[in-house]
Design brief:
Blueprint lengths: L32 E6 L12 H5 L2 H11 L4 E5 L13 H17 L4 E6 L1 H8 L6 E7 L22 E7 L7 H14 L3 E6 L10 H17 L5 H8 L8 E2 L10
Parallel strand pairs: 1-2, 1-3, 3-4, 4-5, 5-6, 6-7
């Protein structure tokens, strides 16, 4: 049964929640790792997030859960306190860090993959410095426009983590060029960074949904379970920029992995 909401330490409101794992592993299986899926959200909102944003990640959660269940990988879709990033509050990043803490309380010292979509991708990248996190998957991440008056998105927290960004080249909601620029800076600090481009696909990555899901499974299970990555992911991680940061996601990727 899902845990009830609890007050925050300062009594200001409810905590975020993990909910139930998307797929239950076989009875008696030790937890081998946890994927925390971070839904998209608004740039600014203090309202409770819509359940639709979590529902949008349910198919990916089930696919990842099935891929790792035999080895004890659990997948949780994080339920935010509020539905917006909210400027310097970085509320979604704080919720991601809380969720990583909660993994430790529930399951002990196991590796965590933060996997986010849209604004959740930004949260995953920002919260990567948590000690339990060993990998970050950012899907079509929302990132702020370059502004000389504002500080750059940090990348030092990515050091020591496996990092993969995937973005559609025709995305009209989150600028793929901004994720490339962040990946360039991240690669200088952390060589274990790569980025895939999904040519002619948009923000929802509907045309290459199967390929993106296969890429997510390959990366998350490889990072959490120390499995070998597929050749394209290995090549992307090893290639110098810009090659490893503009790696095309080939049609049919993953057919031999399932």
């Amino acid at each position: 049964m899902e845990r009830p909401q609890e007050p925050t330490r300062d009594g200001a409101g409810p905590l975020p929640r993990l909910g139930r794992p998307a797929v239950s592993p076989p009875a008696g299986t030790a937890t081998g790792g946890v994927v925390l899926l971070l839904p998209s959200a608004a740039e600014a909102s203090t309202r409770r997030p819509s359940p639709l944003v979590r529902a949008a990640l349910a198919p990916l959660a089930r696919s990842l859960g099935r891929a790792g269940a035999a080895e004890g990988v659990l997948v949780h879709v994080v339920r935010y306190r509020v539905g917006g990033w909210n400027g310097p509050d970085a509320a979604l990043s704080a919720d991601a860090a809380w969720a990583a803490d909660e993994v430790g309380r529930r399951y002990g010292d196991v590796p965590v993959c933060l996997a986010g979509y849209g604004m959740g991708g930004r949260a995953a990248l920002r919260a990567a410095g948590h000690e339990a996190v060993n990998s970050v998957l950012a899907i079509a991440p929302w990132l702020p426009d370059d502004d000389i008056a504002a500080p750059e998105e940090p990348v030092r927290q990515l050091v020591g983590r496996q990092v993969l960004i995937v973005h559609g080249t025709n995305d009209r909601r989150t600028d793929p060029e901004l994720s490339f620029r962040l990946a360039e800076r991240a690669k200088k600090a952390n060589r274990d960074t790569c980025r895939f481009e999904v040519h002619s696909d948009g923000h929802a990555l509907r045309h290459y949904h199967r390929e993106v899901t296969s890429l997510a499974k390959d990366f998350a299970m490889g990072a959490l379970l120390s499995r070998p990555y597929s050749r394209p992911v290995e090549d992307a991680l090893a290639a110098p920029p810009p090659l490893g940061l503009r790696m095309p996601l080939a049609a049919g990727f993953g057919r031999t992995l399932d």
